């Protein structure tokens, strides 16, 4: 086999090539979300154990830490190729859109628990997963649209 034949990309590689930046961005976003989730859940459980407070109070601080961490990781890793005006505007919008994502999660969980009256662990976790999925989709879409805008030509 000649060097020229080995260096030719396969049909599969050529088909995937146009989607590679999107897939890379999506995987990075997912990893950042995973880290944020670990910070929130781990932090909430640690604070609740240390402080013995309510579950709602114990989740506020780790959620704020997770949001700031997610913003920094998304700005300087996931969406590093997109414009930033450096004004702090994108941080405020990021924080607001993240709040809407959290609201989506809470609404899904509340719907399962209060509207459907399903209080079991499986139903709770399914509602949580549905909310996490819908909230994550909303965040990714809205961050790309309003926060981390495409680089200027």
From TrEMBL:
GtrA/DPMS transmembrane domain span: 29-148
Biological process according to GO: polysaccharide biosynthetic process
Transmembrane segments: 21-44, 50-72, 92-116, 122-141
Membrane topology, as annotated: Multi-pass membrane protein
GO cellular component: plasma membrane
Subcellular location: Membrane
InterPro entries: GtrA_CellWall_Glycosyl (IPR051401), GtrA_DPMS_TM (IPR007267)
Keywords: Membrane, Transmembrane, Transmembrane helix
Membership in a protein family: Belongs to the GtrA family.
Name listed for the protein in its UniProt record: GtrA family protein
Source organism per UniProt: Actinomadura logoneensis
Origin organism lineage: Bacteria, Bacillati, Actinomycetota, Actinomycetes, Streptosporangiales
